[in-house]
């Protein structure tokens, strides 16, 4: 009995942090971009705020640059609970959440500001709701990424894209949009794009301005063409199974931290957009700003066929457009 009482007294005398060490919950977060990307900025901010709000009892470990796998694997791992948290671009989620196909429609949004406004509105919340039945929780949309054409060819009119071999995201909306503009979408692993462009295997790729710097595509490009065909949303996901295991207090903290991290990430990307274009230009790449009217017109005819394969597609396009009016 004396030993039991002594043990209890010793435990009570321990510093609070030591006494609660066993109660610390650790969650891993994976993404595929570099540490200077807005994916990583969001992840780090999430970890920082969650730790502060929980007094150290909720710890998020961030693994960038595909350390925990590519985006498709990360999404699958989140569904099973193997990777609790993921920051990812939206297109790979379309394999699971068919309704997300609306985001790959060409020229769904007119500019970056309106794309972000729509994703933070009731429309964005409506779209997050589709994740629930797939074992995922949507913690928020971080900044959309403006996708433009980089490579060895200048693009001022759709005719300039004729027979252009271009690596694009393998989503129907991306592939068919580029086909409609006369290009030849070429499937290729992202890790192979730099060398393929350098050696002439492809003529072009499509990417956000910041990615041009982070992944060094500006080193092997002559032009960066602001065609603005897609504004790709990025999303902070969580495994529903792992969320359900958290205490109500930790769930509340995590959602609050996600809200703050999302706002921080949107501002970071917005601030970095112009800086990235200046960096690209400084590396000798010509920035081309074409009139995109013809590009819009040529891709508009794709909507009926693409929407036919997207559940709730027409309703969600209307909701997206209403959100920016």
From TrEMBL:
Signal sequence: where?
Answer: 1-21
Which is an annotated Pfam family here?
DctP
* UniProt keyword list: Signal
Please name the InterPro entries in this protein's record.
Answer: DctP_fam, TRAP_DctP, TRAP_DctP_sf
What PANTHER family does this protein's entry cite? DICARBOXYLATE-BINDING PERIPLASMIC PROTEIN (PTHR33376:SF2), PTHR33376
Query: What is the protein name stated in its UniProt record?
Result: TRAP transporter substrate-binding protein
């Amino acid at each position: 009995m004396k030993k039991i009482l002594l043990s209890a007294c010793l435990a009570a005398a321990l510093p609070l942090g030591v006494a609660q060490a066993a109660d610390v919950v650790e969650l891993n977060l994976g993404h595929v971009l570099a540490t200077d990307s807005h994916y990583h900025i969001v992840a780090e901010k999430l970890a920082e705020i969650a730790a502060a709000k929980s007094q150290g009892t909720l710890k998020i470990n961030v693994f960038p640059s595909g350390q925990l796998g590519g985006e498709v694997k990360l999404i699958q791992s989140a569904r099973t609970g193997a990777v609790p948290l993921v920051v990812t671009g939206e297109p790979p989620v379309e394999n699971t959440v068919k309704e997300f196909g609306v985001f790959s429609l060409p020229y769904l949004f007119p500019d970056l500001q309106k794309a972000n406004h729509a994703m933070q509105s009731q429309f964005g919340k409506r779209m997050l709701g589709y994740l629930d039945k797939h074992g995922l929780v949507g913690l928020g949309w971080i900044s959309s990424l403006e996708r433009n054409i980089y490579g060895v060819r200048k693009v001022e009119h759709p005719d300039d894209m004729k027979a252009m071999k271009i690596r694009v995201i393998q989503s129907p909306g991306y592939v068919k949009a580029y086909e409609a503009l006369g290009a030849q979408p070429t499937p290729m692993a992202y890790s192979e794009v730099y060398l393929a462009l350098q050696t002439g295997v492809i003529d072009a790729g499509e990417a956000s301005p910041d990615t041009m710097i982070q992944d060094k595509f500006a080193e092997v490009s002559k032009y960066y063409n602001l065609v603005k065909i897609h504004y790709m949303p990025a999303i902070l996901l969580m495994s529903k199974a792992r969320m359900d295991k958290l205490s109500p207090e930790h769930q509340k903290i995590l959602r609050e931290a996600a809200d703050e991290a999302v706002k921080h990430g949107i501002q970071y990307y917005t601030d970095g957009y112009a800086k990235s274009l200046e960096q690209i230009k400084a590396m000798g790449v010509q920035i081309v700003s074409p009139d995109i009217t013809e590009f819009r017109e040529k891709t508009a005819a794709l909507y009926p066929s693409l929407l036919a394969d997207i559940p709730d597609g027409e309703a969600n396009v209307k909701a997206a457009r209403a959100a920016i009016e």
